[in-house]
Design brief:
Chain A is α/β, with parallel strands linked by helices. Chain A is built from 17 helices and 21 strands. In chain C, helix 4 packs across helix 10, helix 5 runs antiparallel to helix 6 and helix 11 packs parallel to helix 14. Chain C is globular and about 70 Å long. The chains are: A alpha/beta, B mainly alpha, C mainly alpha.
Chain lengths: ~500, ~325, ~350
């Protein structure tokens, strides 16, 4: 089926996620959709598969305009989407998941379904046990179940959102073989990814998106021309990077030291052989969201514990100490989701100040706390009163509040997206504060999806891709091309 | 005690568990869809009262049961509207209704206290009742008891062998994913709350029109709370839940038998013993220790055993679902 | 529309519903109101009884403020009251022969509180380490407490000769809490109730402990990230609630029944849950609402005599008001959300 998206626009509040996007996917082709964080590729495929309704534009299937409002409708029209985090039912069995949503009579026909499941699995060389509980499976296997399910529902356009993150090499091979087989059968595959290598290996044509718009289309001709990666990176980032703007703040002493650390989640395995960070240094962690940066931060914060290895903060072994020991050592973690993990909805600024009081007695001295809160509001220019509930503050002011709550002095500061959602003025101001902290010897590790921010404010940069991690690179040695290629999974 | 005596005790216990079966299965259906209806205690009381009052006034058992089911459904509707539409806490609304409906049953049921009324006649199933042991155990009571057997089996088939049952379980686990597969989750929550509530109201009538044969204040006190515990005890699986209800009932009748053997322990204590046992088993079956033990077993054995003893609540139980 | 409007509206609707109900039962709402009033405040004795109910109700409500602050539904409070009563009875029986009466009473209160704390912690441990929802753990523990009380009343502590539902033998009058005149109201009990409300307001609003409890209740994860010892605080709220409930149970023995009876808690724990839900967890309102609910409880006792109505109307009124209030809150919030969207 030929799928055409014409002049699609979608706005979320102030963010224009898709701006007049037009893409045509030919029947029987594998079409790559490439772009950095927030380029709008996920929004676009979610519109196509009915999870998000679009503001303007139309969807044409085989040349006919079809309004798609819900995921169920998309599937009826033959469009199925495989989400990055599988939308399935882990407590149920594989077969239950496979049968779910199929139409038919009142009773389930488990035997027929199992036979169909096995036939389909055999066709794609997927080794799956229909009776197993889904929660026993790896992410890669859950993906396979989901693909088989969509195919059995008669889907002829398959959308895959970052499918190669967190799956093994052999699963990736099986997945790619299956995609090629589907294309050969005349089905269309839309492959959303940020990995250059995967796109080069698999896709017939690729559309690159940047800031909600189409940056360009490229046909991929095999053999792959040597300059393809550079051209793709150019389209993805499309500009020179900003100049480094941070004064040198690091000292000679080692603040943070990793040795043979490994950490496993059900998605990623993160290993850090050896890494030392100096006191006062700022390390930027780049890469697509969910590539392992957050694991590293939570590891440093004491919120996750490594399977093995050593983690030293200011020379003290911390790897298996409780979270409280990290707090006592002057480690502070500032999460991205401010109202979910950072601040407490329902409490006011001054109540947060009281919660962070370094030596709480029994009674709260509200007069002192209010004074402290007022000071913080003044110093950090927070638009609010001491009694303002944090959820009433704007995003920028919530971030200022988080900064105000950080203890002094601080050994290690771990931040996710320090300036996300902030205006330029606030961004500059936040970094001023952070650099001032570094000058007093605080070491900062921060995640950002804004490459300019990474380049401007880091001393060294580490790039993450699918749980792999580059060595720290001095920011002066970075080029846009190199950074883009590494984010795309090419570490040389 | 000879075999016949023993069988009689057991048969009485099994029959006496019937109202509890209706209530427990009702709550199982609701909770499996992801909603807690905490009003069971009040629903059963009010169902018992209305069922008896209607049957007494109209002299129709059928209308009595229907009225009780309707009342149960109405209470569930209040829970549904308050918690699903108005987004208030399911626990708060359910709890208030548990108390309110209990008091309401006493207040409105005053004229019907301790008067004779219609009861379900006993009915022995021909042929089946003559099977040795099983016959006297299961097939010499009345229609309501047989209906409860059908309910247990029917619910099990519905859960595990039908399309809608699969979707019901799915909604209780991952409503977001079920929505993605074209389900109207809110509507389903309403539906299964209503069905479960109707069954609980029906359970009340089963008390007053059959096993307790009549109505008086607080006649079924405690059964609603224990029904909630039995559902957990049974791991949200209708057959296991039913077994839990039978076990509870058998323990209760054994308590009165044990009385003669253990004269030092007062009867009243033994009637509470099953509750204590339930809690104990609950602790055991939901502990991490059991998980660790199970994870060491070979796959096939582990799957069977997990099904049989582990109590994992539906993942989305009690969590409010936002459709968009 | 401001929230107060919704609250007034829901109260009005509750009254309309209740009037309809009373009419259905064949009585006039006005007569019921008059009868309730005279039942609660008609004589000094009756008023004193309202006060006697008020004290343990306030104590239970105070306890629940702490568990609700930490985001917990402590349905086990009934059991905590019962255990408190059992602890007190034990203390009285053990120490009566050896200590002077005031000290025995003091020991009774102390042991009652301690027993309540232990029972509260039991629920907390089941919740945190046994992964059992506190609602079900609490309900189960209520049954266990009930079983224990029955066992003691019919077993080791039975009255010489006959064991019966009427409870253990009456304690010596020297072990009764002093009352105002010959009424049932005990100034000490009332004082304990008032003090507990003051302490609750103080702890919730003015201490780091109280603030941390609220933080944990609002957002467990963020509290943990901010460095609050969350498990410790959850257990602390269970223990505190148990302590207040235990003292309430002690008062039931020392000031109201002067013995242990099977229904020693008089369902005051559950009633307190309604109180706290109605006041939206704001401790300032404990006193008036508890007073109102106590007056209803006592006032309704006259209904069977005066109007031939069942006394459970009190519970119906209390439940209805709380239910409609919950609905009012829900409507108010939905309306606000609509407004923000539009």
């Amino acid at each position: 089926m030929q799928v055409e998206l014409q002049h699609i626009s979608k706005r979320f509040g102030p963010v224009q996620a898709n701006d007049d996007v037009s893409v045509t996917i030919a029947a029987g082709s594998i079409h790559g959709l490439l772009g950095e964080n927030g380029a709008g590729k996920s929004t676009l495929v979610k519109i196509l598969s009915g999870f998000i309704t679009h503001d303007r534009g139309e969807i044409l299937l085989n040349g006919k305009s079809i309004p798609i409002q819900t995921p169920a409708e998309a599937i009826r029209r033959g469009i199925g989407m495989l989400h990055q985090d599988p939308l399935d039912f882990p407590p149920l069995t594989v077969l239950d998941n496979f049968m779910m949503g199929k139409t038919g009579g009142l009773f389930l026909n488990a035997r027929t379904a199992l036979r169909e499941f096995r036939d389909l699995a055999a066709q794609f060389n997927f080794r799956l046990d229909g009776q197993a509980q889904l929660s026993e499976l790896t992410v890669g296997e859950r993906q396979q179940v989901e693909i088989l399910r969509l195919l059995s529902l008669g889907v002829n356009t398959l959308v895959l959102d970052e499918p190669t993150t967190g799956i093994s090499a052999s699963q990736k091979t099986a997945l790619f073989e299956a995609m090629k087989q589907l294309a050969a059968q005349g089905k269309s595959v839309i492959f959303v990814s940020h990995k250059l290598e995967d796109v080069e290996e698999l896709c017939d044509r690729v559309t690159v998106m940047r800031q909600g718009q189409v940056a360009g289309h490229l046909d991929i001709i095999r053999p792959i021309p040597p300059d393809l990666a550079t051209r793709l990176v150019d389209l993805m980032f499309g500009r020179e990077l900003s100049m480094p703007a941070k004064p040198a703040t690091f000292q000679e002493e080692t603040a943070l030291e990793f040795q043979g650390i490994s950490l496993k989640t059900d998605r990623l395995t993160l290993t850090v052989d050896r890494l030392t960070v100096r006191r006062g240094e700022v390390i930027g962690l780049a890469g697509l969201e969910g590539s392992g940066q957050q694991l590293l931060l939570q590891l440093c914060a004491g919120l996750l514990h490594p399977v093995q290895g050593q983690l030293k903060i200011e020379g003290t072994e911390m790897a298996h100490k409780p979270y409280q020991a990290f707090l006592d050592a002057g480690v502070s973690y500032v999460p991205a989701d401010r109202l979910k993990e950072g601040l407490i909805r329902g409490l006011s600024i001054q109540e947060h100040v009281a919660l962070r009081h370094p030596n709480p007695g029994f009674l709260i001295d509200w007069r002192e706390i209010t004074k402290l809160a007022q000071q913080a509001i003044g110093t950090f220019s927070i638009r609010g009163r001491p009694s303002t509930l944090v959820e009433r503050l704007s995003g920028g002011n919530q971030q200022r509040t988080q900064l105000a709550l950080m203890p002094v002095p601080l050994t290690l500061l771990l931040m996710e997206h320090p300036t996300r959602g902030l205006d330029i003025e606030s961004t500059l101001w936040v970094w001023q504060q952070l650099i001032a902290r570094c000058e007093t010897g605080t070491t900062i590790l921060f995640i950002s999806s804004d490459l300019d921010e990474i380049v401007q404010y880091s001393d060294r940069v580490m790039v993450f891709s699918g749980g792999r991690m580059s060595d720290p690179i001095p920011v002066q040695a970075l080029t846009a091309d190199k950074l883009g290629q590494m984010i795309g999974g090419r570490f040389e | 005690m000879d075999l016949n005596q023993f069988l009689t005790i057991l048969a009485t216990a099994i029959a006496a568990a019937t109202p509890l079966i209706f209530a427990c299965i009702g709550e199982t259906i609701t909770e499996r869809a992801g909603v807690i209806n905490l009003s069971a205690e009040g629903t059963i009381l009010l169902g018992a009262m209305t069922g008896f009052a209607i049957a007494k006034t109209t002299n129709s058992l059928l209308l009595g049961f229907a009225g009780a089911a309707l009342v149960g459904g109405l209470i569930a509707l209040i829970v549904a509207f308050g918690s699903l539409t108005l987004k208030q806490s399911q626990v708060a609304i359910g709890f208030v209704l548990a108390l309110l409906c209990g008091d309401l049953s006493s207040f409105l049921g005053n004229p019907f206290v301790r008067i004779p009324g219609p009861t379900i006649p006993s009915f022995k199933i021909p042929l089946l009742q003559e099977i040795p042991i099983l016959g006297p155990l299961l097939f010499q009571s009345d229609l309501l008891v047989y209906l409860s057997y059908l309910l247990i089996i029917g619910t099990w088939i519905f859960f595990y062998r039908t399309r809608h049952g699969l979707m019901l379980r799915a909604i209780g686990e991952q409503p977001e994913a079920a929505f993605a597969r074209g389900q109207n989750v809110l509507w389903m929550h309403y539906l299964y709350l209503l069905i479960g509530g109707a069954l609980m109201g029906f359970a009340g009538a089963a008390f007053s029109l059959d096993f307790k044969a009549g109505w008086s204040h607080r006649h079924t006190a405690g059964y609603g709370w224990i029904a909630l515990a039995i559902v957990i005890f049974g791991g949200w699986n209708p057959v296991r839940v039913a077994l839990g209800a039978y076990l509870f009932s058998i323990l209760q009748s054994l308590a009165s038998v044990a009385q003669s053997a253990l004269p030092d322990i007062p009867t009243q204590v033994l009637t509470v013993a099953p509750f204590v046992l339930m809690i104990f088993v609950l602790v055991l079956t939901s502990s991490e220790w059991l998980d660790r033990l199970l994870s060491r077993l070979p796959t096939s054995l582990r799957r069977v055993l997990t099904q049989a003893i582990r109590s994992t609540p539906p993942a989305a139980l009690g969590r409010a679902f936002e459709q968009d | 529309m401001p929230r107060a409007m919704y609250q007034a509206g829901s109260l009005g609707l509750a009254l309309v519903f209740l009037s309809g109900l009373v009419l259905l039962a064949g009585a006039s709402p006005l007569n019921v109101m008059l009868s309730l009033w005279s039942g609660a405040f008609g004589t000094l004795d009756q008023f004193a009884r309202v006060l006697a109910t008020l004290a343990p109700l306030m104590l239970c409500s105070c306890g629940l403020i702490f568990t609700f602050a930490a985001g917990l539904y402590n349905l086990g409070i009934e059991g905590q009251v019962m255990l408190g009563a059992i602890g007190t009875t034990l203390a009285l029986r053990v120490f009566e022969p050896m200590l002077p009466a005031p000290l025995v009473i003091l020991m009774g209160l102390g042991l009652g509180a301690l027993a309540g704390v232990l029972w509260g912690l039991f629920a907390g441990v089941l919740k945190i380490y046994g992964r059992i929802n506190e609602i079900f753990a609490g309900l189960g523990l209520n049954f266990m407490a009930q079983g224990l009380a029955l066992y003691l009343i019919f077993g080791p502590w039975k009255r010489p000769g006959i064991a019966s539902m009427s409870g253990t033998e009456l304690f010596n009058e020297s072990l009764w809490l002093g009352t105002i005149g010959k009424t049932e109201a005990s100034p000490i009990a009332l004082l304990l109730g008032i003090v507990s409300v003051v302490v609750t307001i103080l702890v919730i609003r003015g201490t780091h402990f109280g603030l941390q409890l609220r933080a944990v209740g609002h957002n467990l994860r963020a509290s943990y990230v901010l460095g609050i010892p969350a498990v410790n605080r959850l257990l602390g709220s269970f223990a505190l609630c148990g302590a207040f409930a235990g003292i309430a149970g002690a008062l039931q023995v020392l000031a109201v029944f002067h013995r242990l009876i099977p229904n020693i808690s008089s369902n005051l724990g559950f009633l307190a849950l309604l109180v706290v839900m109605l006041i939206n967890f704001d401790p300032l309102w404990i006193v008036p609402v508890s007073f109102f609910f106590s007056a209803l409880n006592i006032g309704s006792l006259q209904l069977p005599l005066s109007l031939n109505l069942e006394s459970s109307l009190a519970g119906v009124i209390q439940g209805t008001i709380v239910l409609f209030a919950l609905f009012g809150q829900g409507l108010a919030r939905n309306f606000k959300n609509e407004e923000m969207k539009g």
